[in-house]
Amino acid sequence: MIGEMTTVTALWWAVIFSGLYHGINPGMGWPLAVSAALMERKHSAMPKALAMLALGHFLAMIGILLPFSLMIFLVEWETQIRVGAGLLVIAMGIYLLINRRHPKILARIHPARLALWSFLAAMAHGAGLMLVPIFLGICAVGADETGHIAAQSLMGSNVTTAFLVALVHTASMTLAGGVIALTIYHWLGLKFLSKTWFNLDVVWALSLVLVGAAGIAYALMGH
């Protein structure tokens, strides 16, 4: 019992830290929030921009997690589903390592459509896939090993968990990105941003491979 509590706590912290990690990454949109505030010259523009970015990111997370929440009720196939999800995440990470180009479609979206931009950016960069092994691990912690839980009850529980994971992750992302955006807008300025711009694409891709491998390992070990 204590072991399960420790595992689920660690997985929820992984949800939070992955959100903070996504928020720090400029590829998830916080520079657009700074840009919106500077262009409109209104303090209220930044919270609105961050809210739109958060909405798009949340919808992307749900779009990825919900199908897996509906699949996991097949308790007898739980390990195979988790291994398959891990392999999918690893494949995405390897693809991003090979293909470093920024998706062209993102450059064609009007800056005012931040929610749409955020949704597509999260999908294109595999942000939702990073959560899948963590989410499946959380669902597995409370699963009945004998497989006698009613499928409808289990499915309902996992759908709720999917929304909670997406919500907690998005809140963490918005907090991290918002702090950076506010700091640059109010104190550091665009000159600092241009001089200290950092690219996390390689780290992002490697982290996908790591998360996918960890998900497979935990699935095979029965955690």
Keywords:
223 residues, mainly alpha, 9 helices, 80% helix
Helix share bin? over 70%
- What's the total count of β strands? 0
Estimated share of beta-strand residues: under 5%
Question: In terms of per-residue confidence, which ranges show pLDDT below 50 for 5 or more consecutive residues?
Answer: 145-153
SS-derived structural category: mainly alpha
Termini separation: 13 Å
The coarse overall form would be globular
> Largest sheet at a glance?
none
The oligomeric status of these chains comes to single chain
Order of helices and strands: HHHHHHHHH
Radius of gyration: 18 Å
Please report the number of helical segments: 9
How confident is the prediction overall: mean pLDDT?
Answer: 78
What this model shows, in words?
Helix 2 packs antiparallel against helix 3. The protein is globular and about 55 Å long. It has 9 helices and no strands. It has 223 residues and is mostly helical.
SSE topology:
Elements lengths: L1 H23 L5 H11 L4 H27 L6 H21 L5 H4 L6 H11 L2 H15 L9 H45 L5 H21 L2
